Amino acid sequence: MLSCKELVALSSDLLDCHLSVRQRVAVRMHVLMCFRCRRFIRQMRLSQAALRQLPQGQSAELDALAAKLAELRRQQQ
Ligand SMILES: [Zn+2]
User: Fold this and answer.
1) Rounded to the nearest whole angstrom, what is the distance from the C-alpha of residue 14 to the centroid of ligand 1?
2) 10-residue stretch averages of pLDDT, the chain, 77 residues long
3) End-to-end CA distance of the chain
4) Distance 67 CA to ligand 1 centre (A)
5) How far apart are CA 20 and CA 13, in angstroms?
6) Are residues 27 and 13 in contact, defined by beta-carbon separation less than 8 angstroms?
7) CA–CA distance, 75 with 30 (Å, rounded to integer)
């Protein structure tokens, strides 16, 4: 079973669809049982969708922001 920390580490690859089938299954299992990670993934997806709406150029800055948020989240574990 994946820990919350491992899930956070995998989350950006998950959203970019870079995970193996096994990793995706592990993430899905964890998210089903863990409310906090479910909320975290949902927020990641929402911010990623929001990023796509923005014109080019702003997204690099927001990528940095997203990375910072993920880092903060890691520190809370
Ligand atoms: Zn979790």
Assistant:
1) 14
2) 93 88 94 95 89 72 84 84
3) 16
4) 18
5) 10
6) no
7) 19
CA of 71 to the centre of ligand 1 (A): 15
Runs of H (alpha helix) within the chain: 4-15, 21-33, 35-53, 58-76
**What's residue 55's pLDDT?**
73
pLDDT for the residue 27 = 93
pLDDT at 56: 67
Cα(56) to ligand 1 centroid in Å equals: 33
Question: Position of tokens 């927020």?
Answer: 43
Distance 55 CA to ligand 1 centre (A): 33
pTM above 0.85, yes or no: no
| CA–centroid distance, residue 18 to ligand 1 (Å) | 20
